[in-house]
Design goal:
By secondary structure, the chain is an alpha/beta fold. It contains 11 helices and 6 strands.
Length: 224
């Protein structure tokens, strides 16, 4: 039995369309240092893409979350703002949006970040808003990744068997599974292909540029 053709794409933002994962690592690392808590950058890297409401406990334990979680979440965006100038689009990000739109796909952006940060990041991709059907952010869901709630909100009434999430983190893969859709992962978040496949990714490609070429050349998002 053949797999139904994809008609709806839910796109992650950080690490997928913009090269911001390591900037988030530095921002969280600085926030933890501010309050005297040392968390290795390599550990933080593996947690980027998880909701900020979950990250502190995962990084430093429940006691740190209870005592300092809110303060850390206030400090992280301040450091991110300081480092924001280092963020650039990933290779082929706009090409991918244009390729998918030209194929008539319904493309929805689903960012775990807040609305303001999401809008600032989209400013790095001129014309991206016109290529996106809808934009949902962390404020649109009560539960953050790896919960699939944000993906569910992005999908709306779309048929799950004909939808795909494109993301870069293990948390994207798990959120997709929780929402009942496949995940096509890119390597621009800095994780190894084996990590993403072990988490359940349906397929893995190098970056948005490689995915854009596939869509342009084959007319399909997924390998046949």
């Amino acid at each position: 039995m053949s797999t139904p053709e994809v008609t709806t794409v839910v796109l992650d933002l950080d690490g997928t369309l913009v090269d911001s994962v390591y900037t988030h690592v530095l921002a969280w690392h600085a926030a933890f240092q501010d309050v005297g808590v040392e968390v290795p950058a390599r550990r933080l890297h593996r947690l980027i893409g998880m909701g900020g409401d979950r990250l502190v406990a995962e990084a430093a334990g429940d006691a740190t979350e209870h005592a300092l979680g809110d303060e850390l979440r206030r400090r992280h965006p301040r450091h991110l703002d300081r480092l924001f100038g280092s963020i650039t689009p990933t290779d082929g990000a706009l090409d991918l949006l244009e390729a998918m739109r030209s194929r008539g796909l319904d493309v929805v952006l689903a960012s775990s970040g807040d609305r303001e940060t999401t809008e600032r990041l989209l400013d790095l991709l001129p014309g991206s808003r016109e290529l996106l059907g809808r934009i949902v952010t962390g404020a649109d869901a009560e539960l953050s990744k790896p919960s699939g709630e944000l993906v569910e909100v992005a999908l709306g009434d779309a048929e799950r068997s004909r939808a795909v999430l494109v993301g870069d983190a293990v948390w994207d893969v798990r959120a997709a599974a929780d929402a009942g859709v496949r995940c096509l992962a890119v390597l621009t978040g800095g994780l190894a292909e084996t990590e993403l496949r072990d988490a359940g990714a349906h397929d893995v490609v190098a970056d948005a540029a490689a995915l854009a070429r596939r869509v342009t050349e084959t007319g399909s998002l997924l390998r046949s």
